[in-house]
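ARCHIVE CARD
SHELF: 3
SLOT: left
DATA:
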Amino acid sequence: MKRLFAYLQKYMGRMGLGLVIKFVGTMMDLLIPWALTHILNEVVPQKDVGLLLWWSAGMFAFSAIAFSFNVIANRMATVVARDSALEIRRDAFSQMVRLTVPETDRISQSSLISRLTTDTYNVHAFIGRIQRLGVRAPILLIGGAVITLSMEPVLAGVLLATMPLVTFASIMINRKGLPMFLRQQKAIDKLVLTVRDNITGARVIKALGMEESEIERFAGVNSDVSLWETRSGATMALSSPIMNVILNMGLCAVILVGAARSDLGLTQPGTVIAFLTYFSIILNAMLNITRIFVMYTKASASMRRLDELLSAKTELPQVYMDDCADKNAAIEFSRVRFSYSGGEDEKLNLRDISFKLQKGETLGVLGATGSGKSTLIRLLERFYTVSGGDIYIFGKPICEYGEKELHSLFGSAFQSDILFADTIRANIDFGRGLSDEAIVKALRCAQAYDFVSSQEEGLERRLAPRGADLSGGQKQRLYIARALAASPKILVLDDSSSALDYQTDAALRHDIRQMYPETTVVLIAQRVSSVHSSDLILCLDDGRSVGLGTHDELMRSCEVYRETAQLQMGGDI
C-alpha cells in the first residue's frame, strides 16, 4: 500500500481539512446522548420548562452541526477518491502502453484489463470509505468508550470486555480473506480473457457452430469466479454476525448490571438509557470498522496487482554489441539468436541469422508458418532483446537507440492489424499530424486511393470497430497506407499483402520503389511472387537461414526456395 500513500500525499491538505470537519461532526454526534443524559438526570427533576427548551435547542444544534459537517466532509472525501483514482488509472494505463512486449505477455492482456477496471474500482472505493468512516468510526468507538467510562466505569468495563474478542475475530477473518481475494481477481482475469476471445473470435465461432461449446467453456470460468467470490464473500461476511453476537452479549450484560445497580441506587436511570444509546453507537462503529477491514483487504489485493503493473519493466535490458557494423548498411544482423523461453540450442526460435541490407534496398523474407519470420521483425523493432548476436540500424547498435527514436524510423503493417472506429483520415494519420498530401500519397501507393475516393465521405468516412465493414484486402491496403504515410526510413510489411491479388500486390511493390525510393523495405511473405524482385531474399526454415541471395541465386542454390517456387508458380517467375 506504500504506492497508494504516495498518490495520496498531494491530497494530504484537503484530507486533513476534511478529517478535522469530520472530527467536529462526529464529536457533535457523541454529545447528543450526553445531553440527553443530563436532561433526564438533572433538568427533568427540576421541572424547569425554560431550561428544558434550552437543552433541547442545544441537542438540535448538535444534530444540525453533525449533519452539516458530515455531509461536507463526505463530499470532500468523494473528490479526493475521484481524483486519486483518476491518477492511478491514468498512470496504470500509461504504464500499460509503455510495457515491454515480454512484460505484456507475462501479465497477459486480460489481466491488464481487469487491473484497470476492477482493481482501480476497489482502490477508489477504499479511498472514499476510509475517509468517510476511517475517522468517524474510531472516534465514535474511542469517544463512546471514554464518555461511558467517565459516566459509569462499571458498566463501561462490562462493555470494553468484549473488545479483545472483537479485535481477535477481525484479525483472523481478514488474514484468511486476503488470499481469497487474490484468487478471485485471478479468476476474473480468466473471465475477461474468455469474454475477449469470444468477442474477437465471434465470426469463427459462428462459422464453425461452436456456440454451445463456448457457452460451456464460459460456464466453467464463470463458475470459478463465482466459487471464489462465494468463498471470499462468505469468509468476510462472518465478521458482521460475529460482531453482533459478541457486542449484543455485551449489551445484555450491560442491561443486567445496569438494572441491578439502578435498583440499588448506584446508577441513575438516565445513565442506563445513555449507555444503551452509546452502546448502539459503539456497535455501529465496530461494524463500520469491520467493513473498512473488508474493503482494505480487497484494496490491498488490488493495489498489489496495480503495483506489479506500475513497477513492471518499460525498457528492455541493454545487451552489449561489438562495434563492428557496416556503417553504410541500413540493417545488419550478425549471428542473431533468440528464444522466447530463454532457452538455448533446441529451444531457439531463431538461430545464427546474418545479413546486410543497404539503404533503399528491399529484403524479402520467405518461409513457412512458424519458421521465424515475424520473430525476426520483432527483434528488428526491438520488441524483444536478442539472446545472442548483434543487430545494427544504420551502423548503430540497436540497443543504443531510445525507444521513440528507434520506432520513429519504422513504418509497420501487419497481417492482423487494427483499425479504430474513427474516420479513414484518423486511422491513417494516427495522431501524427500528417498533411493531406502525405495521406493521399500513401493511399495511392497502397492501391487504396480508388476505393477511398469512391466513398461519399472520402477520408471522412467512419469505419466500424476493427474495420468490420471493409474487406480483407481493403483493410490491408489501409494498414500499408498508415505505415507509409510518415515516409519511414524503414518499411516493414509483415505478410500484409496476403489478402491482395497478384496484380495489386505487384502494383504495390512497384509504387513503393517509385514513390519512396529512399525507404528500406523488409517484406515478409509466404508467396514467392511477393519477394522474387527483392534485392535480397532470406529463406527461413525452422528458425534457420537456409538461403540468402537474389531470386536467381536461390533458385540455383536453395532447395527449399526452389521447391516453394515450383509448388506456387511452377518455377516460371
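SLOT: right
DATA:
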Amino acid sequence: MKPFKLTCKFVLGAILASPWVQANSSEIDFARDVQPILEHNCVSCHREDNAKGDVRLDTKAATLAGDDVLVPGDPEASSLYWTTTLPLDDELIMPPIKNEEKDYPLTDAEKAVLKQWIVDGAEWPEKIVLEPRKRLPKTISFVEHVQPILELNCVACHYEGKVKADLRLDTKAYAFATDYVISPGNALESDLYILCTLPMDDEMFMPPAPADPLSSGDLYTLRRWIDEGADWPEEVTLAPKKKSLTILGTMPKDLYQELGFSEGPVTDEFSEYEEEISTSDLAFELVAIEGGEFTMGSPLDDSSRGENEWPAHQVEVSDFWMGKYELTWDLYELWMLNIDRDNRAYKKMEETKADALTDAVTKPTAPYTDMTFGMGKSGFPAICMTQLSAKMYCMWLSARTGRFYRLPTEAEWEYACRAGSNTAYNFGDDPESLPNHSWHLKNSFFQYQSVGGKPANGFGLFDMHGNVWEWTLDQFAPPPSTALAKKRVNPMVVPTSLYPRVVKGGSWDDGPQNHRSAARMASDESWKQQDPQIPKSVWYHTDALFVGFRVVRPREIPPLEDIEKYWPSEAEILAIPSR
C-alpha cells in the first residue's frame, strides 16, 4: 500500500459555484458569485493554454500579473470590469459581441457583482483555479433548460406521489406556494437554489446523497432563471425522470460498432505519428514499438528485487504504439471537464459524427478541489484518476479520433519500459544514476514535474521511470514464488474486483526500489481516504497524487467480444451513480 504522506484541505470549487448576488449586496463570495461569471463567460479565451491578448483569468496570480486587468479596490481601472460596460458596438466589449442574435453582454447583476467584488478588494482564494465552461443560451427557456434540471434532480422526492418535507415541485402553484422555496428575482432567498450550493457534508445539502451535486452549468442556469423572474408556464407539470443510458453514456460494444472497428490488424504505416485533437490546438505523439520476446520480472536471486515483482520469465507481446509522454492535464481535461464540447460551441464548429459519439461517452462529475494540488497543470501529468476514469478517457479518445486506444497491459508496459534492457533500470543497474533518468523522492522537490524532463529510453519514451506511477489494465495478483516454465503470450490478468489493480513505474514520491522496471504496486481503497463524498467518487483517487497514465494503440484491434477487457465494461458503466 502507498504510504500516505500528504494531507490536503479541500476548497469548494466549480461544483459549488453559482452565478451572482443582488446588486446591492456587499457580501460577495468568490466561489459562489464570481467564479461562475468568469468561468462561463471569460476563461475560455483567457487561460494558460489560450491567453488571448496576453490576458489570463484562470488563476489569481496570472490575473493580477496582467496590465491593469484587475486592480483591487478600483473597478474603473480594471479592464476585467470596465470592458463589460462598453456599448455593444464597441470592439473592446467583453464578452465579444460578434453576432447579436447569439452573443450577449453580461447582465447588469453580473456586472454589479464584479464591480462590488473589486471594490471590496477582489478576494480570491489562492487554491481556486478557474476552468472554461460553456456559455448559457442568451434566453433561458423553462421547458428547454430548467424543467430537465428539476425533473432529473429534484422532482422524484417532491411531487404528488412523494411529498418530502411537505414540498412539491411538480407544478407552478405548489412550487410557488411559499416565498422561500422560489423567490422570483432573488435566488439567494430561494431554498431551491441556495440549498444546492451548501457544502456537501451539510445535512441540508441538495440533492442528497447518493445523487450527484448539480453541475456548475445546472446551478448557473437555475440561478439565472430565478434572478430573471422564474418564469414557469402555468400549463407545465413536471414528472420525475431517471437518467437514461443516452445521458449516462454509450456502451463499449455500441461504440466499437459505431466506429466501424473490426478484428484484425490496422493498415496504418507502423511508425511514430502525432495524434491531433481536431476540436483543440492540442496533439500528442505516439511511438511505434515493435513487439517481441523479453524477460519480464526479476531473477529470484536478485538481492535488490522487490517482494511484489514477478519472478523472471519469458513473455511475448505484439506490436503497439505508446504515448511518448505521460498524459498531460491539457489533454485529459478535454474529456474530464467537457472542454472538447465547449471548444466546439465557442468556435461554432459544424457538428460531426465524432462529436455525437464523444458526447455520448460518460464524463466525470466535476472535481471538488483543484486536482493538481498546486503542483502545476499545463505540460504536467494528469493525476488522481481512478483506473475507470483512465479507461473511460481511452474510450472517449477512440471516439474523438476514430482509432482504437486503451491502457497498456502490465506486460506491454514493462516491455516498453525496458526497451531491450535486462537490467534493473532501462539505463543499467546502478541506482546512483537514477537522478539522471528519473524524477524521484530525492530530486523532485516533493512534486511531479513537467513531462519529458529527463532523457528518453531506448524506445524514445519519456518518464517510464518516475514522475508518476502509471495505470495498466491488469488486476494485481501476488506473484508466484517460483519462475514460470512456460512463455506467456500477450498476457493480461483480467480484473474481477475493483481493488487491487496494477500501476507501474514509480513516482516523484518514491525511492529507487519502486523505479525498477520490474517494480509494481497495487491500487488500494485508501487512495480515496480524504474523499468527502458519500458514496466516494468512482472518478477520483483523492490521495493518489502519484498516479497517472499513458495511452496505447495496439496494431491489431481485438474482437468485439473482448472489448470490455480493454474499455470499461457495461456493468462498470451501469454502476456509475446517475447525475
